[in-house]
Design goal:
Triger factor/SurA peptide-binding fold; 16 helices; alpha+beta; Chitinase A, domain 3; 494 residues
Length: 494
């Protein structure tokens, strides 16, 4: 079985290698394609020492000039250059991030960079557009994340050897625009690809017997959630506090940023003075976006509620469809009496379930406070693919620890946990509703997974054909030092 699993992993890697996108942190500083002119791979020789008019002047007999090797060109794809330094810097960046380097080679990385530039080149030819607002919004989010990770913008600039924020932002812009063009081109290529049930069957039947996928042990899990009730007086205290902050900023010119650092309970923005840059596509909750896009520049919102707590928003700058804003989040105090009440309620529900007064699905529908699961019998969905099954080896450790010792039809004791999305704490009980042991792929039992594999295989073949066709029709030049590489695609032309 282990051998089969290895073959399955290899099977998946081969098909995902082309379809997968390099994320920002893996390709950062990998290319300056739109910034660089062609630079020859040559040497600068020292000029001859000019004749001196005064024979009495002593000549410097030490040649201080050094031979300097300029950055060479690894490849050219359409309008894009890939320099030797681009590859080396990318490898260094990957190592600094702790990426697994076993399967990453100079030639393999060069091939991937060439693919990305072919996609981007063709995207331009096909008039696929990426707006400046979209690129800038992405760059801003990345800068915020980097600052949050390392502590300051100065440290970020030092790490990436940049002299100014403007230089850093410009490079991010170029990198992100190329990446977005590449992604949109790939999405266009595979956007209309579907697989029929017959294609799924044919795909499955063509897999050699000794290479059949092996699916790990899986669980289906259901839960019932009780969220402790927040008293109205605590809600009002929170609203009053936000109104005080709003008035101080408006009437006394107090700094909203400083107020956010002092009072906000949002861990993602507190250290940045509550700052976020967002568009309508940014994955914020609807209530937050509705308020943000209803405000004028310089305006502070009234306090409003989301699932995270209560907020006020200050619009710092409006740039087309992009907002620079700051916000303050406060969460009302939950008294211990409310927490205890939620636990007692779940204890009672659990007792009635054990007694058979109602099914778990009926209890979830009637008593659970979690809207996302109560209408589906409390059934949890895998956030990766929205399937109802969780593979044990890939399960979130916290969830795994909560269910690992549960027997069939056993219901867990009430467990208090912090809302992973940042909301108030809640109590929950869990039940393992189905178990699936590790097994070799079965067409009937694993149809959804096999369908996904068949779709990926079809996408892979479509992408491969597209690459072969467009490599032949596009100007491609591979540097002499890289022509011996064993590329997955025919980049080296005769």
């Amino acid at each position: 079985m282990k051998q089969l699993r290895k073959k399955y992993s290899k099977f998946m890697r081969n098909r995902n290698s082309i379809l997968g996108f390099l994320c920002f942190f893996m390709v950062f500083i990998s290319v300056r394609a739109q910034e660089n002119d062609s630079i020859p791979d040559t040497q600068i020789e020292p000029p001859e020492t000019p004749m001196l008019a005064d024979a009495g002047v002593k000549k410097d007999t030490v040649n201080t000039f050094k031979k300097i090797k300029l950055d060479g060109i690894s490849a050219v794809v359409g309008d894009y250059l890939i320099l030797d330094s681009d590859i080396e810097k990318t490898l260094i960046d990957l190592r600094s991030q702790g990426a697994a380097m076993d399967d990453i080679t100079h030639c393999g990385l060069l091939g991937k960079l060439m693919e990305d530039r072919l996609y981007a080149h063709q995207a331009v030819q096909d008039s696929i557009l990426v707006s400046d607002d979209e690129v800038n919004a992405t760059s801003d989010r990345q800068m915020q994340q980097l600052v949050q990770q390392v502590g300051s913008m100065e440290k970020v600039l030092d790490f990436y050897n940049k002299e100014s924020v403007e230089d850093f932002r410009e490079e991010l812009y170029n990198i992100n625009k190329l990446r977005m063009l590449s992604e949109k081109m790939q999405q266009k290529i595979i956007s209309e690809i579907e697989v029929t049930p017959e294609e799924v069957r044919q795909f499955f039947n063509k897999i050699p017997a000794d290479e059949k996928p092996v699916f790990g042990a899986e669980l289906e899990i259901s839960q019932i959630v009780k969220i402790p009730e927040i008293p109205e007086e605590e809600k009002q205290k929170t609203i009053n506090k936000l109104n005080e902050i709003k008035a101080d900023c408006e009437d006394n010119d107090a700094s909203f940023s400083v107020k956010a650092i002092l009072y906000s309970q949002d861990p993602g923005s507190k250290s940045k003075g509550g700052f976020y840059s967002m568009t309508r596509e940014t994955p914020f909750v609807k209530e937050f976006k509705d308020v943000a896009f209803s405000l004028r520049q310089g305006e502070i919102s009234e306090p409003f509620e989301t699932s995270f707590g209560y907020h006020i928003i200050y619009i710092e700058k409006i740039r087309g469809q992009e907002l620079d804003l700051r916000h303050i989040l406060l969460q009302p105090e939950i008294p211990q009496s409310s927490i205890d009440k939620a636990r007692v309620e779940l204890d009672t529900i659990r007792k009635h379930l054990i007694e058979g007064k109602y099914t778990f699905a009926e209890a979830a529908l009637n008593f659970s406070d979690e809207k996302e699961t109560k209408f589906d019998g409390g059934l949890l969905r895998n956030p990766i693919n929205f399937d109802s099954r969780f593979e044990l080896t890939k399960m979130d450790p916290a969830l795994y620890n909560q269910v690992r010792n549960l027997k069939d039809n056993e219901i867990s004791q009430p467990t208090l946990e912090q809302d992973p999305t940042g909301g108030p704490p809640r109590y929950k009980i869990l039940k393992v509703t189905n178990r699936y042991d590790e097994h070799e792929a079965n067409f009937a039992q694993d149809y959804i997974k096999i369908q996904e594999l068949a779709l990926r295989d079809k996408q892979f073949n479509t992408i491969r054909k597209w690459l072969n066709d467009h490599i032949a029709d596009t100007y491609v030049s591979v540097g002499v030092e890289n022509r011996d590489c064993e590329f997955a695609n025919k980049w080296v032309k005769e």
